[in-house]
Design goal:
Blueprint (H helix, E strand, L loop, with lengths): L16 H16 L4 E4 L3 H4 L8 H18 L7 E4 L11 H21 L9 E4 L7 H13 L23 E4 L6
Parallel strand pairs: 1-2, 2-3, 3-4
Helix pairs in contact: 3-4, 4-5
């Protein structure tokens, strides 16, 4: 989904309720057909998230507000609804090292916001990606560091995820990238 045309560009970055209702309706149509559905922050990645290196606090506040609203709205949706933090992230004017840190920061924040929203978000599959969705070894290594740093070894009730037949923590994150050409 692209949120920016239906979201206030200033704090508190409220997503238009009518638009959010329509997104929920379309997501439900898809879920009713039986497939897994991925809901993400899509074109926003190039429209405003890409400016995080120069507008850090504003972009982080908007990103966090976006995911807070999405996570709250869909917290009771079935686990066949997956959330993807961001699609094909790019960061204008940042070094390679800064880009890795910025993407890690966004994905860690996304993870915390969704998990803290409760409901089915406690065990929802979360999709994380590399910069621009590129599967180069260096970017996959960066993504691996992010994924392994996340604490998904608990369930909503605080017990380890494998206690009593719960979902294994490492199985609640999905890595996504675009295939290499050729």
């Amino acid at each position: 989904m692209t949120w920016s045309d239906h979201q206030a560009a200033t704090a508190p970055y409220t997503i238009d309720a009518t638009y959010l209702d329509r997104v929920e309706q379309v997501v439900q149509y898809a879920l009713d057909e039986g497939p897994y559905v991925v809901l993400n922050v899509h074109h926003d990645s190039s429209q405003w998230v890409s400016k995080i290196a120069t507008e850090h606090d504003t972009v982080r506040a908007r990103f966090d507000a976006t995911w807070t609203q999405i996570a709250e709205r869909f917290k009771d949706a079935p686990r066949t609804l997956l959330f993807e933090a961001i699609n094909e992230p790019t960061f204008e004017g940042a070094t390679a090292e800064q880009k890795a840190k910025l993407l890690d920061e966004l994905q860690v924040s996304f993870h915390r916001i969704v998990r803290d929203a409760g409901g089915n978000n406690d065990d929802r599959l979360l999709v994380l990606t590399s910069q621009v969705g590129t599967p180069s070894q260096e970017l996959m290594d960066d993504l691996h560091r992010t994924i392994t740093s996340l604490d998904d070894a608990r369930r909503g009730d605080g017990r380890p995820s494998d206690a009593g037949g719960g979902v294994q923590g490492h199985h609640r994150r999905v890595l996504r990238h675009h295939p290499l050409p050729g």
